[in-house]
Specification:
This protein is of the alpha+beta class. The chain has 2 helices and 2 strands; from the N terminus they run αβαβ. The mean pLDDT is 85.
Length: 65
């Protein structure tokens, strides 16, 4: 079994908590996932924030809206 397969198996066995979606996030860049979503996770863990995130990704690679 490769290291990647071992990591995926480990990650899939972690306990998951599902929260009601209260945040609509436009984009899935590294900053949003690494900082903003982390802050929401901390708020869920340390308070009664109880919010999940739904991500909207762009399907276009164009710079114009």
């Amino acid at each position: 079994m490769s290291t990647v397969q071992s990591a995926k198996k480990f990650i899939n066995q972690l306990p998951r908590t599902y929260y009601p979606v209260k945040v609509l996030q436009f984009g899935s860049g590294n900053f949003l996932r690494g900082f903003v979503d982390w802050m929401l996770q901390k708020m869920n863990q340390n308070s009664d924030f109880n919010a999940g995130v739904s991500v909207v990704q762009s399907i276009s690679r164009s710079d114009t809206l």
